[in-house]
Design goal:
The structure holds 2 protein chains of 2 kinds. Chain A is built from 1 helix and 10 strands, in the order αββββββββββ. Chain A is mostly beta strands. Chain A has one domain: Sandwich (Immunoglobulin-like), CATH 2.60.40.1890. In chain A, strands 1, 2, 3, 4, 5, 6, 7, 8, 9 and 10 form a 10-stranded mixed β-sheet that branches. The longest helix of chain A is centred in the N-terminal third of the chain and has 14 residues. Chain B has a single domain, classed as Glutaredoxin. Chain B contains 5 helices and 10 strands, in the order H-E-E-E-E-H-E-H-E-H-E-E-E-E-H. The chains are: A mainly beta, B alpha+beta. The interface between A and B is medium-sized, with 28 and 33 residues. Strand 5 of chain A pairs antiparallel with strand 8 of chain B. The complex binds copper (II) ion.
Chain lengths: 155, 201
Amino acid sequence: MKSPALSILFAGWLLTGAAHAGAADHVHASHAWIRVLPGNLPAGAYVTLRNDGDQAIALSGASSTVYADVMLHRSSTAGGMSRMTMVDALSVPAHGEAVLAPAGYHLMLMQANATVKPGDTVRLTLNFTDGSRLATDFLARPANAMDAGDDHSGH
Amino acid sequence: MKLRRAFLPALLLVAGLLLGGCRHDELPFRLTNISGHMPDLDFKLTDDHGKAVTGADYRGKVALLYFGYTHCPDVCPLTLAQLHVVMQRLGPLADGARILFVSVDPARDTPAVMHAYVNAFDPRAVGLTGDARATEALSKRYRSAFTREPGSADGSYEVSHSSAIYVFDRDGKARVLATPSASHDDLVHDLHLLLDTGATP
Ligand SMILES: [Cu+2]
């Protein structure tokens, strides 16, 4: 049995001792897609993050060479009203998943400096709170897409 | 018994009218039935071709009214994408329906922006804009609401808004209320009821 204190010490050692072996090494991204809207309207980006590590990690945002501004957001509906709020971090539990999907958590992409068309692939760098990063390719999908369009398994 | 003979057809006629009336007013909707509880479809706005329109312009069509704005990257596109899926499932019947997307952000949503936006979702979607007063009047009419949230330094801002979809029959009467989380099956079912009945020639 691992004591919490030891875990924290161990995490601290990881951070200082091995700066580049970050939490992102244990994360696998899938179903990464962007809902492309006409003109220069802000777009939503979605992805499923799976953490194979023994430590919970947290997504803090993303950056991109294509979009000048990227924010981690959450949509919610309460009392019949839809609103969006900024999110500091989204936890990905140890051996668990975090899902960014429509009507929930999303990356809001703003101020594109190039035209993104459905079918394009856009690389976003996902940033985690420990400073580690994960470059992920997102598929640009049409405005009226319902999902990443890659689920052919028919689960 | 002359009187009885004359009375019976009249009675049958009245019964028939009542039954007919009931059949019309009490369609077995799966979504929240708002028949008689919300005002008829009425507004004075500008469509995405820049043309002045009123609620009366959509008589003869089943109208799905939804409030949102184009700078909304998540919930508004999801709702419109879901309505597109529902329209697809209706097949040719969908031509009898219109998605009316009313902007709660008239400052940024011009008819041209709205035109590109709604057509990215469905050819039967119409983008409606108006000045702040007309938009607020329409929103209040359906006990809907929207609030512009404090903006950030770069001038961008979000608008919190009601998420409901109001469905009107071909006569402009409010019939059902759907939430964005409503199942596609239920929406398709209720739209079928409205599209199959009361078709105006
Ligand atoms: Cu957002």
